Each structure stands twice: as C-alpha cells, then as structure tokens.
Amino acid sequence: MHQPEIYTTANNLQRQDAADVIEEFEDDLAEISSRCLDAGTGPGDVVVDFLLPKLNPTATVVCSDISEPMVNFGKERYKDNSRLSFLKLDIETPNLPSTLVGQFDHVTSFYCINWCQDIRQVFGNIFDLLRPGGTTILSFLANNPSLDSYPILAAMPRYQPYMKGNYCNGRRTLKNLVNYIGFEVGHCSLRERSHVFHSKDNLKNFLVAVNPFVDRMPVELREEYKDDLTEIVAKQFIIFKNNINNNNDDDFSTLTRYHIFVLRLKKNLST
Q1: What is the pTM of this model?
Q2: What are the φ/ψ torsions at residue 227 (nearest 5 degrees)?
C-alpha cells in the first residue's frame, strides 16, 4: 500500500473496476468543470487514465492519499500535468483541515474506503469537503474471499500484533448511513464482479500490493506472511490448472468472485 512501483504492476483488478464505473457515469462526469478531489488516489494512474479524460477539460483534480510515497510518486510522474495536484490526506481523519472544507464540487474515490475503519467519519469528511450542491462518485470493495483470510491470519500469534481491519457490509446499512449524514442518494448498488489471476505469482503480487499489513511486520516475518496469505486465499478461490499435463502444483490460475459498492451522492444546496 506504500510501494507505488509494486502497486502499479498489480492493480489490474482495481483499474478495470474503476474504469467500468467511470464509463457508466461519464455523462455526469462530463458536466463537471470545476475543482474535484479524489480520495485514495494511490499512484495516480486511475485518475489520469480514466477519470480525467471524462471530465470537462476545464476541471482540475486534487489527488489525495494517506501514503506519502504514493503522493510523491504521483507528483513526480505527473508533474507536467497542470490539471493535477497532489496532497497527503487521511480521508478518515477526525480533524479535516479547515482549508479543505467546502472547497470541492465533486469527490471521487475508488478502492479506498474499504480500508478505512471509521466509515461514518469517512463519509462525514466527504460531505464536509463538498460545496453545497456538490456530488460524489464512489466505489469500494464490499467483500472478497481474500478478505476472509485476514481473520484467519490475525488469529495466528506471530501475525496478530500487526493486523487490524474493518470492512463495510450491507447495502441497506450503507444507504442509511449516508442519508443520516445528509447526502441525497442518487445511486447505491452492490455488484458482483469477477477476476482471473493467471498464475500463482500474479495472485501473490496482487495480494501483497493491496495488503495493508505487510509493512507493519518485521522484515524477517514478511516472506512467511506473504506465502501464508497466498496459500490461504488460493484455497478460497476457484482453482484450475493452466496445463493439465503439467505436474507443477504452482502452475494454476484462480478465479475470484467478489462484490463492490457503487454510490452517487449529492450534498443538498441548502446544506
């Protein structure tokens, strides 16, 4: 989560899901011609490759992330793009900087909110970032078999001190939450998705790239953790051999089925 070079080689699933959601709401995005903020931008490739081309050419985007390495990576890679700026920001912070309150007409976020522990704080911050009449397009993981591995690993004494997490489930609960905060819900759906990892290494690289716990562990424990993580997750996916005549047990592909939330929200003009 803090290694952009690795993440950009293993984020095909996130890119495809974000691209599909952005394509679905392209008519709404085309009308946005002012200041936007993207929460959990990561290395910036999703914003640059998919979001920015759909926005009105006069729109600008503040790309924010909790990870300083991700922010610095984006700053350097896209330094010549005058429509982008990069900001270190914890979207879950209980102390949102006053300089950001009410400064944006649109907020987007793709595959970020599922890593936050206080979902109510996150949506409250998004609400506060928006100007009256501002809108959002958000998508994040609702559930995935790979997430089921975390409680299993966290129960192992050697990993327990380094693993904490919280995941939002339930469309009705989510819709009630954003209504309570003050949003007008234009769209709220729970969608099934699928993805194929074509090798064990492909799967492992993905799991490590999106795992929030690896960097918390002592260096001498990380490789063992990565191997255990991959083994446990692979057992929960649909596995099929790449070559039935090959006796190599590691020569397999995995199919995962998972769900994402997709929301389009609006802050009322009278707020």
Answers
A1: 0.81
A2: -65, -45
